[in-house]
Amino acid sequence: MFVEKWLTPNPVTISPDETISAVAIEMSRRKLRHFPVCEPTRSGQRMVGVVAKFDIARGFPNDLNPFSVEVTEESVPKPVASVMTKKVITVAPDCPIEEAARLLRSHRIGCLPVLQDGQLIGIVTQSDLFEAFISLTAAKSGGTRIFIESDFDDSPVPAVLDFCRANRVEILSMMSFHENRLRRRDMSIFRFHGRLAKGFIPAMAAAGYRVVSVGE
Question: Which domain holds residue 172?
Fold first, then answer.
């Protein structure tokens, strides 16, 4: 899956000339944590930076809460360009979501502007990636979630697929990961539509796999 499916298109942007306090007010009003900072061009918008809540707080005096009702647009008249991040890490629309997650984590940032042909077309945040993960695991789809433990080199997927075909069970999602490389064990997670099919656990045991847990 790619970033283009999960980005927020046409994000709210601000001018580098906006005052720091005006941006603080706008963040509070819109309940947003980041703004791309852009300058208009003939073909769209050229991004010159990103400003986050942390940057805004850094630009305020210590005795004034930047997101309180006491703040006016002129409370801190310096331009937001003075506190924004200028060297911005960006991604393309076809960036895999796992790469976007790696960038957010490794650089300890909260958002990634999405550029196409040098123009800002969207923004992807940590919340967007959480939503992508929920979608990948079909967590909102109900049904039954099964954890299966297997040997490192013996995936249970073929056995599960055979059982589902024979019993007309619909798989909503599946994924596998190494639980512990030293033990050479894998953990696979399946989500099925509806309740656990009768005979599933005995069928997995007969195939040499252990069902660790069953839940919703």
Answer: 140-215
CA gap 118, 120 in Å, rounded: 7
Element (H, E) at 157: helix 157-167
Q: Which residues, listed in sequence order, are joined to residue 45 by a DSSP beta bridge?
A: 40
Q: Which residues of the chain have pLDDT under 50?
A: none
- For the question of whether the overall pTM of this predicted structure is more than 0.85, the answer is no
Residues 185-212: tens digit of each pLDDT: 788 999 999 888 889 999 999 999 989 8
What CATH code is carried by the domain that includes residue 192?
A: 3.30.70.260
Q: Are 125 and 111 in contact (CB under 8 A)?
A: yes
Beta strand 8-9 with 119-125: parallel, antiparallel or unpaired?
Answer: antiparallel
Q: How far is CA 62 from CA 43, 56, 188, in A?
A: 41, 12, 50
